[in-house]
Design goal:
This protein is α/β, with parallel strands linked by helices and 246 residues long. It has 2 domains: 100 residues, Rossmann fold (3-Layer(aba) Sandwich), CATH 3.40.50.12500; 112 residues, Rossmann fold (3-Layer(aba) Sandwich), CATH 3.40.50.12500. Helix content is 46%, strand content 15%. The chain is built from 10 helices and 8 strands. The strands form 2 sheets. A 4-stranded parallel beta sheet has the order 2-1-3-4. Strands 6-5-7-8 form a 4-stranded parallel beta sheet, sandwiched between helices. Helix 5 links the parallel strand 5 and strand 6. It is globular, with a radius of gyration of 17 Å.
Amino acid sequence: MAGSTKPRYIAGSVNPVNADRHPLPKQEPLLPADIAQISASIDVTDYTPEGVQDAIAKRYWHCVDELASNGAQSITLAGLPIASQLTRPRVLQLLEETHKKTGVTADAHAEATIAALKHFGAKRIAVASRWTDALNVKLIDYLQQAGLEILTITSASQWASQAFSMSIEEGVKLAFQLGREAMRKAPKADALLVAGGAWRSMPVVPYFEEEYGIPVVTNPITQPWRLIAAGVAPPVQGWGRLLAGK
């Protein structure tokens, strides 16, 4: 681990791809400096059923072993597309197996997202998605299995290659566009789920909460929220109700 101070907590992530394929700018930290974040990648070729199943079968347990050997105290399967293609029963099974193998907390963005929506008491959800219709069907099924009603879901017909090739500016613009489209179609939604990467979808959260007066969740912020809810990390102001601990 870099740095001279031993981290108080180490949060591990199993990511769809590594930074070489999907570089992101330096993030504004959501967690304090004494909480380290480490990651390993399953290097998915695409978010098709075949691409996801192949990546999980060949590389998931290697990632788990790598994170555990580096001291991860929690391991989170990142990304809604991965979970959606696996289906909820398979994700829950995978998390149970991960916990049994490592002894640490096992989680997934999909499960943390469901927990976040239920934290707000939301049942009727509008979803701003940029994914292709075929993947959206799988996402809807996943959320419905958790007892959520999906009022509407948008699409920009993206698979992994299109998502990874977008600039940050394009991604933020699309998140605003699709979020507003979802709310036009479902103005009575209890909450808005903006499905996407943290530094493309995060900027819309406080704006949409003010504009529509409902909670807004984007799946990557649910990972630090789990630590906030557990008392491991302090609340974060300025990025919406969830991270503020409200």
